[in-house]
Amino acid sequence: MPVILGIESSCDETSAAVCVDGHILSNVIANQTIHEAYGGVVPELASRVHQQNIVPAVQQALLNAKVSKNDVDAVAFTRGPGLLGSLLVGVSFAKAFALAKNIPLIDINHMQAHVLAHFIGDNKPSFPFLCLTVSGGHTQIVLVKDYFDMEVIGQTLDDAAGEAMDKTSKILGLPYPGGPLIDKYARLGNADAYQFPEPQISGFDFSFSGLKTAILYFIRDKVAVNPDFVQQNLNDICASVEKRIATILLNKLNKAAKAYGISDIALAGGVSANTGLRAGLLALGEKNNWRCFIPKMEYCTDNAAMIAIAGYYKYLKGEFTDQSVAPLARMPL
Ligand code: KG4
Ligand code: ZN
Question: pTM score, two decimals?
């Protein structure tokens, strides 16, 4: 019955979770609202807030799980990729905890953990499966052969899907993070009101920078004629942008699923919380006879439950790291 404490601090969420024998008993997430006014995460501020939140988050996670700190068998933590200053807080906490309790340390790749979030709960995909991981920093189609044997078969050549959401919302004058707001307004709009371009990129790769520029110029030209254009048409703009981002993602996923002959298809990362993308995947899955796996909302955006479950599978393999471990801003799958 291994008890794993999971720690996540790669970007702007401080999170701690407890996993007992492969079951998540708690998942505490402290969001940082301080970045809203800046239109994006300010790394220096993020690490300072992690420093304030990490101990209370861990204490709350242990309390919610009704587990004493003396019962913890191993500490799993996000080693990377992410913001170095943010990662340092989680890595240093994990090391100190493991040293004090004389228990093993388990280093986790954040992007692998997003994929492994599908192993929380009973409805698990079968290997090999494809996972579309879409977050603020990454957009990847991953061929998942085993728990820690993953291959990126397609990725963005420039901006990530979440970045496209956040940059669009910034153009529209909305606060950070914009993805949830685009989702909210899109529900009230007409997704066919405006047509934005779909980039023609070969293979399974993506590009979102051209779309971002097209949206910027579209808004600039409309506002030149009518200064209230954005306020008057916010819902339709958000619905049209969301639809284009979702179709870019799903068209490539469809192509990859057909090329690899795989029918277990999963969605992961912060953008997998998007209503239009979730519905689009389910519709495509029904058409293609796929088994679709979409994480629960709390496991879409950054969370320590996914770190704890990944830690559990590494614990079973006996794969530990040592006190010399350092965070990695970049960390391939
Ligand atoms: O995985 P995540 O929490 O952090 C990273 O590892 O980057 O993803 C954050 C991203 C942000 O870009 C945010 O705007 C986007 O996920 N996001 C959404 C939604 N919720 C979060 N995008 C679209 N619709 C949503 N409902
Ligand atoms: Zn993430």
Answer: 0.95
